[in-house]
Design goal:
The protein has 302 residues and is of the alpha+beta class. 29% of the residues lie in helices and 24% in strands. The chain is built from seven helices and 15 strands. The model has no long low-confidence stretch (mean pLDDT 93).
Length: 302
């Protein structure tokens, strides 16, 4: 198995930001996004990564960005197999299949979450109040049940710690009613199209998180066009369930960090940094799961 790429060294290329998984570099009039093989669970980055995870996240995003180009404008400037610009050629081995060259955009200050099934924090809230993020739902739904219609449940973006669920009205206060409405309508439209396609490929997309930004070009004009940015419908930004094993009334197996989370739950670890080193078997199973998600969705081997 390949060694995971945890840190990138692109000397001479200006780094703007380092997230849990992605690094963002400034190329002047555009950004370079690079997905590492880092993995986080319970908001803690593990010391060892998952080989090829960054490639899977990037290539699945490329797949959806291109598939939905007519549905919603996005930040992609280069296709996944386009040659790198000359100044990035020396780093081709590090960047292969895990990088995107994208338009500059100012991200909206809300996370755009769509839920099509009752799971996670939504299920916990429903059991208490028959609501999800304050939205009233029918009585009698079970864990993992499909909702009558997908719902838009935005959240704040926390610099540290957990994002907080907010109402649509609160989202309107944060970004303005016009942008919040656009983001909600686009999120629901993309989710429904992605869900319907994925189901034909044997994957249920239970819920997902989208990011939108205002295209800035060389300035930061607030009237910039709203575009889809970051990653789209990946196992990191969504809950992917194998359709052939789906059974409402319980938690579902998933195409993501499930092996990692299940292993960590067996440890006497307080879920604060530093994270424990993951055993080779957990790493190998998780890598295989990410690769399977890519192959199912695209019908191709990575």
């Amino acid at each position: 198995m390949n060694e995971p790429i945890l840190q990138l060294d692109l000397s001479g290329i200006k780094k703007v930001r380092s997230g849990k998984v992605r690094e963002v570099y400034d190329l002047g009039d555009r950004f370079l996004l690079v997905a590492s093989d880092r993995i986080s669970a319970f908001d803690v980055i593990m010391p060892n990564g998952i080989p090829r995870k960054g490639e899977v996240l990037t290539q699945i995003s490329h797949f959806w960005f291109e598939k939905f180009a007519a549905l919603v404008p996005n930040h992609l400037l280069a296709k996944s197999n386009d040659p790198l610009p000359a100044n990035l050629q020396p780093f081709a081995a590090q960047l292969a299949r895990r990088s995107m060259i994208v338009k500059k955009a100012k991200p909206l200050a809300i996370e755009c979450i769509v839920r099509g099934y009752l799971s996670g924090s939504g299920w916990k809230e429903y059991k208490k109040s028959q609501t999800v993020c304050g939205i009233k739902l029918p009585a009698g739904l079970t864990e993992s049940a499909e909702l009558p219609e997908p719902i838009f449940t935005p959240s704040t973006k926390a610099e540290a710690g957990h994002d907080e669920n907010i109402s649509f009205e609160e989202a309107c206060k944060i970004v303005g009613t016009d942008l919040a409405t656009q983001a909600r309508d686009l999120s629901l439209k993309i989710y429904k199209a992605g869900r319907d396609y994925a189901k034909q490929r044997g994957i249920i997309i239970a819920d997902t998180k989208f990011e939108f930004g205002l295209e800035t070009g060389s300035g930061t004009l607030p009237q910039g066009k709203l575009i889809l940015i970051d990653e789209v419908l990946t196992p990191d930004s969504s809950r992917f369930w194998p359709a052939d094993q789906y059974a409402p009334g319980r938690g579902q197996p998933s195409f993501d960090k499930q092996f990692v989370r299940d292993y960590l739950e067996t440890l006497d670890w307080n879920k604060t940094p530093p994270g424990p080193t993951l055993p080779a078997e957990v790493v190998a199973k998780t890598s295989a799961t990410y690769l399977e998600a890519y192959e199912r969705l695209t019908g191709k081997k990575l």
